[in-house]
Write a structure and sequence with these properties.
Elements: H1 13-25, H2 30-39, H3 46-65, E1 74-84, E2 87-96, E3 101-107, H4 112-126, E4 131-134, H5 138-150, E5 156-159, H6 165-178, H7 187-204, H8 218-224
Parallel strand pairs: 1-4, 4-5
Antiparallel strand pairs: 1-2, 2-3
Length: about 230
């Protein structure tokens, strides 16, 4: 993985990272952060902060994945909705039975191919689950059946709505942060911003590997990704 670099930036890297973290962790607009930085004596335009978030979120996600703890083998998979240019798009997510985030994928459609893409991504990053619980979605069922046809080790498919309460509750955190954003301007911006939001959430859940005795706060762990 390439190191995160701040070469050529006109601001100190700690200020950049703090602005990025504030936007991804709290229900703040870019203009809110512009004002907060002004109070600290820094003049930075909200559009610059937007560029920082879009540039560094995927890099921070890649750095986090190198330090992500193993997740459980019993997954809860579901999709929620994200508004992009006034249209609802589909955001696939999965957590394990303890609520640890497994993976996520933004897609333009909600169909078998989208579900299959998400499952392949999640399995490639986290290994194959023994069981996946879903709702009554025919697309998710078809995607899982295709994974089973393509592999010798089969995944148990379970359809039990109340067992997916844990991921439906987890969706609310994403919704709470994206609601003040009033929709994304394009798919690219949504994809990158959501990756950053998920990194913050996984760190808060304790999903980042640390050294024995390390007592870093979630904020310090976030900044350490760019060290």
């Amino acid at each position: 993985m390439a190191a995160i670099t701040f070469k050529g930036r006109h601001f100190q890297h700690d200020m950049i990272l703090q602005s990025v973290r504030w936007y991804l962790a709290y229900s703040l607009s870019y203009r809110d952060i512009e004002e907060m930085m002004a109070e600290r004596g820094f003049t930075v335009d909200h559009s610059t902060i937007n560029r920082w978030v879009l540039h560094y979120s995927p890099q921070l996600d890649a750095a986090f994945r190198q330090k992500k703890k193993r997740v459980g083998h019993r997954w809860r998979m579901d999709e929620t909705y994200v508004k992009i240019k006034g249209q609802w798009k589909y955001y696939y997510r999965a957590v394990d039975k303890q609520g640890q985030t497994i993976d996520f994928l933004l897609t333009a459609t909600r169909d078998t191919q989208a579900a299959l893409r998400f499952l392949k991504k999640a399995i490639a990053q986290n290994g194959k689950p023994s069981l996946v619980n879903i709702d009554q979605s025919g697309a998710n069922t078809a995607g899982l059946k295709q994974v089973n046809r393509d592999n010798t080790t089969r995944i148990t498919i379970r359809q039990c709505k109340y067992l997916n309460n844990i991921i439906e509750q987890d969706h609310r955190h994403i919704k709470r942060l994206t609601r003040p954003m009033l929709g994304f301007k394009n798919f690219h911006a949504a994809q990158r911003t959501l990756a950053g939001i998920e990194v913050i959430a996984m760190i808060k859940k304790g999903q980042m590997k640390t050294l024995a005795g390390d007592r870093k706060t979630p904020a310090e762990m976030f900044y350490a990704l760019a060290a």
